[in-house]
Amino acid sequence: MNGKRASGDGSENALAEAFSHAPEPMVLTRDDGAILHANQAFTDLFGREAADLVGRAWYDLLEGDDVHRGSVAHSEALAGQGGQRVRLRLALADKSVLLAEADLRPLPPVNGDTPDSAGGVVVLLHVLSTEEADLRVVGELRTDNSDSVLWSLDLSTGRLHELFGPTPLGALLAGSDRELERILERVHPDDIARVRDAMSASFAGRDYEQRFRVFDRLGDERSLHVRARFVPGRPDRLVGIIDDVTEHVQLVRRLADRRRTEAEHGRLVTELSSKLVSATTVDKVMDLLSEEFLPIFGGIQAIALYVEDGLLRASPSGRLTSNVNRIDGRRADDTDYPMGAVIQDRQPRFFESRAEVISRFPAAEVLMRDSVTKGQAWATVPIFGDGKVALGVWQMVWGRPHHASRDERALMLTFAGLAGQALQRIKAQQAELELADAVQRRMLPRQVARFPDMDIATKYLPSRADWRICGDFYDVIELPGDKVGLLVGDVQGHGVEAAAAMGQIRVAFRAYATNQADPGVVLGETNRLLTETGEIVFATCGYLVVDRTTGVMQAAWAGQPPVVLAADGRYDLWEPETGPPLGVLPDTEYTVTTRVLEPGTTLLLCSDGLVESAEVPMQDGLAQVGEALAAHADDPEAAAQVLAEMAPAGRGDDIALLITRMAKPVGHVPEQAAADVQPRGEVSPKSP
């Protein structure tokens, strides 16, 4: 049996006895599979006499399809391709079936002259216990048609093998490669260092668990989760499981992308909602709906129109859209079209296809046929406020058939509601601002005092930012003794209250000024009046008294910008000493600053809206104003027009400006008056 002749000392009989009484079932077969010898354990297993088994192919004792598998394994063993155990089902005499692993080893021929000595195969059967069989079944179920591999790594040789034979995943990852180093070459470059470090630890006797990326034999990237336990022995091994988690990783990535998209979507919804709530013009509301909401709904076009005098109107930018001009100006009650119907009954309409629209609104076919935008689905919702009348209509267009989900419909109606509230608020604000504007202009002097020896120009410019009406004011007051009072101020706040407060301050100021020559006292009395009324009203103010005979100027200041003086193509800034705004601190005394208005010099008083804003520092604004005033100093009216047009600080605040110029050189300054005037820009004591 071992390929050598037994010696005559009886060893052949000893070997035969050992074969016969071996604990594992064994048979010696010919090359055609016929049984030559069967040991006692084999005959007991199958419940047959040895005579019944001799001459019968051993694989005929298997169950069903395993007969063929046994035959193939026998042929492979003869060809020297064996070496692995084959799991087979045994058909016993009592009709029962047992699971076993067969180990087939070829034997070379001993003597080619006799059949009994021809080369054959030794078949050793290892009958699996119930627990072993169950584990084998579980292992096969784990790997059969799944993305898993049960594997073992020989740590002494670095070779791997699959515990239950080849699997599709194993073939895809490694193919016929069994060397660990060859397989590690497929690991993603970004993960290889981490994988090698973990493998080194496993060679030292530690368990292994890693998740990493590899490139399969087709070149596709796959994500694997590999777990293994160190099994000591001869040799030491790692035994574990490889799971392909590519789909799981991709799902996690898709979920993460979806969450990022949803977060961005939520941010965009919040941002646009905030813009709607803070919009200050009807056109801005329409433009938001027409332009900035498309990414949320994935449409190709959005149209927003408001109702004005019974007609549908688009914003100026909306009219640039290809087919909006066909709708702009149509009657809002024209129910032959979806928009008119929605406005009339305030019920949203959603159409998933062109055919659905035409079947309900045949007249819309002309608009759809001529439209440059090839819409395939429409959602039309009313823009409504608190009343029962729709304020406008909003339509979303998709480039392919689209079913608007419940969330999309709810979101469109929510945005339309916010737009309606914004339109109501804007109309209310416009009404208030129109009233404030009327109050403001009534409170300002319709015509300022005129003097033959002075050219005076005044101008009031309302803010263009959000239709704000503020409390800027100016006045020219004729005073005794050939003097004139020049006043510019700015009341805190906006709207009707600011305009009304401005009128009250100007009237009070004029009353005090006509009875008091000292500008500091006039400011102090006006301040006392504001603080004693109990109303929270603050105002910055600049008051300048000019002696028309001598040119002496006395200024009392409460937070206003400096005076701009221009002559001979140059300009100068005069900054009188300033006190706090009026209405802030009671019993405030305002210092008087004195200076002479040189012959031919043009003087400008202005509110801060002309020279200062969040984007323009006051010094920059004053420099631009000074250069423009110097260029037009000979003509106050022209200078006022130029300054109004240039408005260096923009039109975010309202503007009041007053420009004056002596029409002829001033007379001789009396010696006593000259003695009272301090050097340019310095402060003289306030008059008692």
Write the layout of secondary structure elements.
Elements: H1 11-20, E1 26-30, E2 35-38, H2 40-46, H3 50-53, H4 66-78, E3 86-91, E4 97-107, E5 120-127, H5 130-143, E6 148-154, E7 159-162, H6 168-173, H7 180-184, H8 192-203, E8 208-215, E9 221-231, E10 237-244, H9 246-278, H10 282-292, H11 294-297, E11 301-308, E12 311-313, H12 338-345, E13 349-351, H13 354-360, H14 364-370, E14 377-384, E15 390-398, H15 406-443, E16 454-461, E17 471-479, E18 483-491, H16 496-513, H17 519-532, E19 539-547, E20 552-558, E21 563-567, E22 570-574, E23 592-596, E24 602-606, H18 618-631, H19 636-646, E25 655-662, H20 671-676
Antiparallel strand pairs: 1-2, 1-5, 3-4, 4-5, 6-7, 6-10, 8-9, 9-10, 11-12, 11-15, 13-14, 14-15, 16-25, 17-18, 18-19, 19-20, 20-23, 21-22, 21-24, 24-25
Helix pairs in contact: 9-15, 10-15, 15-16, 16-17, 18-19
How would you sum up this structure, described in words?
Residues 669-688 are annotated as: Disordered. Keywords: Hydrolase. InterPro entries: Bact_Sigma-Reg, GAF, GAF-like_dom_sf, PAS, PAS-like_dom_sf, PAS_fold, PAS_fold_3, PPM-type-like_dom_sf. The protein has 688 residues and is of the alpha+beta class. It folds into four domains: 22-111 and 119-128, 2-Layer Sandwich (Beta-Lactamase), CATH 3.30.450; 132-249, Beta-Lactamase (2-Layer Sandwich); 279-434, GAF domain (Beta-Lactamase), CATH 3.30.450; 444-662, PPM-type phosphatase domain (Phosphatase 2c, domain 1). Helix content is 35%, strand content 25%. The protein contains 20 helices and 25 strands. It has a five-stranded antiparallel β-sheet. Strands 7-6-10-9-8 form a five-stranded antiparallel β-sheet. Strands 12-11-15-14-13 form a five-stranded antiparallel β-sheet, with helices on both faces. Strand 19 and strand 20 (552-558) form a beta hairpin.
